[in-house]
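---------- Forwarded message ----------

FYI, see the Translational regulator CsrA record below. Original note from H. follows.
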Amino acid sequence: MLILTRKQGQSIRVGDDILIKIVDVDGSQVKIGIEAPKGVPIFREELYEKLKESNIEALKASKELKAEDLIK
């Protein structure tokens, strides 16, 4: 993991297409802005994990339904 120190108004560039800007710092809370191509999904980590779990459950249910069709 790369750890950088940035101040309000400063940025970090990831590759050629992604810009992460420190918009505001208020105590322990940091607001960031992210500029990325439309095709690049951006999620908060906790939402990404929920989405991933939901997708896994949907895949399991789909496999179970297909197995039931084979038995019939």
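H. also flagged this: The longest helix spans residues 45-71.
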